[in-house]
UniProtKB/TrEMBL annotation:
It comes from Euroglyphus maynei (Mayne's house dust mite). The lineage of its organism: Eukaryota, Metazoa, Ecdysozoa, Arthropoda, Chelicerata. It holds the Pfam family NTF2. PROSITE patterns: NTF2_DOMAIN. This is NTF2-related export protein. Coiled coil: none annotated.
Length: 131
């Protein structure tokens, strides 16, 4: 792969990851009923060590959470090597910031592995930890 091609892939991943993260947290905060659209049918969510499998179960989990207000401090995204992602175009998105849950402020880190499915980014794994 040429340097120019590699740079284009990195830039595309950064732009896509930023847009995706902003959409995800907007839906988490304000339109949680739509969040299932962002997950692959067989996605996995690990939320503070709790393992949830499948889009339907993930949506139910989020629906049962209290109101959340997030503030993103940093977003990083990078393309995933074809050695790992095989035939899928994939990016890894890492976010950190602060969130208010039940008026309690906490820091958080979250990582998304996204795959392109019919030209739409879908979460296949989502790992969240607050502290």
């Amino acid at each position: 792969m040429s340097l120019q091609s590699s740079t284009l892939k990195i830039n595309h991943a950064c732009e896509s990851g930023k847009k995706f993260a902003e959409l995800f947290y907007e839906q988490l905060d304000k339109s949680r009923h739509l969040i299932g659209q962002l997950y692959h049918d067989t996605a996995t969510l690990i939320w503070n060590g709790n393992h949830i499998v499948g889009k339907t179960n993930i949506v139910q989990f989020y629906t049962n959470l209290p109101a959340i207000d997030t503030s993103l401090h940093a977003i990083d995204a990078q393309p995933v090597s074809p050695i790992i992602s095989k035939d899928h175009t994939s990016i890894l998105v890492t976010c950190n910031g602060r969130m208010s849950i039940n008026r309690k402020q906490q820091h958080f880190n979250e990582s998304f592995m996204l795959i392109a499915e019919n030209n739409v980014w879908k979460i296949v794994t989502d790992t969240f930890r607050n502290y």
